[in-house]
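**Backbone geometry record:**
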Amino acid sequence: MGRFLVILLLGCAVLAGAGMWYVQVYAFYDELPPQDKVQLTPVGALAAQDFAVTNFRGIDSDSSPIRYRACFDIDADAGALTPYANATPMFAPDWFDCFDAGALTLALESGQAQAVMGVSNIRYGIDRVVVLMDGRGYAWQQINPCGTAHFDGDPVPPGCPPPPER
């Protein structure tokens, strides 16, 4: 009887682990339809503007505002766009093979790529960041300093827009 219970418990643990893995890697992501433009913020502009792209691939999820990832071809001058400090590429599921956060991090550190503002506060406290490198663009969403403070329950830093009502 004891052996049966051990096998049953191990089987349940394996099934639970496999289910959790599937949910994290596949279940909540949706592939986005092809798009012919993305929004980037030019230097000195008050709002993001549309820029033409080709070969767009993207994923997103309703379960979290930072699950967005996209890859595309773009002809844009990073020098004419608002730089983004502290860009931290977010990892994508392995099956979304056009987005490699590790390679993007290395390219940013070496100066081969430039991070620019896509859309500031696309949702409160969340910026869409775009990295431009060799005619390709890579986008993700990351928490900005206003969001970090707000989500931690702290007062937002000066210069942040007022947080939404909870």
User: Anything to note?
Assistant: The chain is about 25% helix and 30% strand. Helices lie at 2-27, 101-110, 145-151.
